[in-house]
Structures are given as C-alpha cells and as structure tokens.
Amino acid sequence: MASITLDRVSKRFGGLTVVDAVSLDIADGEFMVLVGPSGCGKSTTLRMIAGLEESSEGRISIGARDVTRLEPRDRNVAMVFQNYALYPHKSVYDNLAFGLRMKKLDRADIERRVRRAAAMLGIEQLLARKPRQLSGGQMQRVALGRALVRDPEAFLLDEPLSNLDARMRVQTREEIAKLHREVGTSMVYVTHDQVEAMTLGDRVCAMRDGRIQQVGPPLALYDRPANRFVAAFIGSPEMNLVEADVVPGPTVHIGEAVLPLPEHGIRLPAPGSRITLGIRPEHLAVADGAGPRITGTIGMVERLGDRTLVGLDVAGIIIKALLPRDDALAPGQHIALAPMPGRLHVFDGETGASLAVP
Ligand SMILES: Nc1ncnc2c1ncn2[C@@H]1O[C@H](COP(=O)(O)OP(=O)(O)OP(=O)(O)O)[C@@H](O)[C@H]1O
Ligand SMILES: [Mg+2]
What is the pLDDT of residue 268? Predict the structure, then answer.
C-alpha cells in the first residue's frame, strides 16, 4: 500500500494540453475518484499514474519512490479497464493466474492468491469458464480479480462499470466499495458519473479541460462547490443556475421575485455586478406564508414516486424543484416556491468562482 502524489503533471499531445499542471495527493489507503465530463483528461491522468502514458511535465511518486520515468511493470500498480481486457481463450483461472506466472511466482502461491481473490469476488464457481461464457458483471469481477491477485500498491480503475446495465452497476459499485474496505489499498477511480463519484470516493477530484476544479469529500463538493462548473456537475437533478444583477439590499431579481442575498459567509458583490445564483432543486419548497418566493407556471411534472419534480417557468427561466410527492401538481398551475434558508449559492458572474468565504 502506498500514497500517490502528482506534482504539476501535464500531458500534451502535439500542441494540445489535455492535462494541465495537475497536483494531487492521494493518501495511503484512500479511495480517490477523478470525475468530469468526457474528454476532461481523467483517463490520461490515470494512464500517466500507471505509466501507460508518459507525462510531458511534472513528477509522479508512489510511496517514497519517484516513478515518473519507470515502466508500468516497475510501478507495482494494477489497472482495471472499462473493456475488461480479458484473454478470450484462457479460462477465468488462467486469466487470474497469467500475470503471476509471468512474474514466476510458485504454483502454490498462485493458487492461493487466485482462490482468495475468487472468494472475495464471489466467482469461485466460474474459474473453469471462458470469458465468452460470462455476463458483463462477471467479466468485470474477473477483471477486478486479475488486479487483486497482484497485491499491488494501488488500484487504478478506469470507468470499470460503464459497460454494465443500471442494476448491475449499482451492485458492482457496492462490491467495489466493500473490496476497498477489505483490502484497504489506495484506489484511483475514474468515472464521468457523479453518483459513482459521490458514493465511492473518500474524496472526489472534479476535472474540466485538463484542470482540477475542486478536490474534497463528496459532500463538501455538494455543499460548497468551488465554482459554477462543480455546482452543476455534482448533484442530480442539476442545480438551478440563474444569471442575475445585484441590486441594493443586496438582493437579486428572478422574474418578479426579489431574493435577499445571504448576509453571512459570502463576499458580497457590489450592487450592479453580475452574479450567478445557484439553488438545488431539493432546496426549494412550496412557499407558505410570507418571505421570499419565486412564482411561475408549472411547465413539466415528473412523478418519481416519493418525490415530484416540477419545472417552473419564471419569466422564461425554468427553475426545477424537487418536491415531496404531490399528485395534484400539474402543468399550467401557478405556484410559488421558497428557497430554503442558507441554501443559496452565489457565483461570480464572470469567472464562475464561488463567492462563499471558505
Ligand atoms: N493519443 C492521443 N492523441 C491525441 N489526443 C488524445 C490522445 N489521447 C487522448 N487525447 C485527447 O485528450 C483529451 C483527454 O482524453 P481522456 O481520454 O483523458 O479523457 P477522459 O476524461 O478520460 O474522457 P472520457 O470520459 O470520454 O473517457 C481528449 O480531448 C482526447 O481527445
Ligand atoms: Mg476516459
């Protein structure tokens, strides 16, 4: 087991910088998730840690070792790929054992490691099968097993669940979390799925255009997004983000609504400045009594079971609200919503940076 440190690591393909001065400290035993939209450089970052891609700049350490120029096989990390990359003509047992045989481990040791990994992953009964005789979820477990038998200093996983159907994804996700608790080895996990990031990570590193946007525990990104991008990316349904001008008070107008800005905890923008106001759909409630409210006409209604998601048309801006189940809500109705106190987010209108005081 080991920590992993990236110190201003960059990657350029030709003139294009796809990973830009990424610095990240992953603690020994930590589960770190790299999350971000397609093309933001997650896989490239992971591949540089694995040594499958050479970094253009910067330093990568695993434990006390500088591995920046080491070959992948000398880094003692195990990578799990989205497409499993199993040998099709070998049995599950031989897929698990292959790397160990290449390392010339003795037979008894190999057998012990394969059986142990198979037991941890619940695939003992599959050891004689070939990959084509497995479901996607089973193949993914074999791919995990192949990493596990190596007993590496860190696991690197690149979208390991994205070929699975929704149910299998949830189940395998829980298994990966359990596996991490059992082996306690550092894991770096790449996904574009914010739910996976939130549920698996000890910490989450949100990336965009090759740059880190924010690193922290999942709920810190949810509660205190550092900028508009993280605010929109983390949380589902997405945070409502509305452009507004600050007027003396200080307040902002959304349609006819006049919302007071928080008095504490933010660097208050001067009247006249442009901000982006953020409010999560789950932090809106149907207004009762006085107080700030946003009125509009219901455009869409999604009945989710215990909740009802409505899209409110407020002078042409759509504000989504995730409300307790209410079967009476219907398109065309006029309603008023109230933001829950202390749940407004304020971002700089130009840079998108949060105006919250850290
Ligand atoms: N070998 C390459 N040559 C040129 N450009 C590349 C190469 N590999 C990746 N890129 C570019 O680098 C950027 C980052 O790619 P990367 O695969 O790291 O993204 P990602 O965040 O993993 O995306 P996804 O979620 O789609 O897997 C992309 O714009 C991609 O087109
Ligand atoms: Mg990728």
Answer: 82
Q: Which two tokens stand for residue 87?
A: 């040998």
CA 168 to ligand 1 center in whole angstroms = 27
Residue listed under structure tokens 């999560």: 280
| Residues 217, 174 share a domain | yes
Q: Which atom of ligand 1 is nearest to the CA of 11?
A: 12
Nearest CA to ligand 1 atom 25: 38
Residue pLDDT, tens place only, 222-250: 999 999 999 999 999 999 999 998 888 88
Closest ligand 1 atom to residue 53 Cα is 1
Residue closest via CA to ligand 1's atom 20 equals 39
pLDDT at 1 over 80: no
Whether pLDDT at 283 is above 90: yes
Residue 354 within any structural domain of the chain? no
Domain limits for position 261: 237-348
pLDDT 10s digits, 33-68: 999 999 999 999 999 999 999 999 999 999 999 999
291 near 347, Cβ under 8 Å?
no
How far does residue 3's CA lie from ligand 2's centre (Å)? 22
Q: Are residues 177 and 269 in the same domain?
A: no
DSSP state letters, 22-72: EEEEE-TT-EEEEE-STTSSHHHHHHHHHTSS--SEEEEEETTEE-TT--G
Same domain, 255 and 228: no
Domains in the chain, number: 2
**Same-domain pairing of 315 and 207:** no
Residue 77: which CATH number? 3.40.50.300
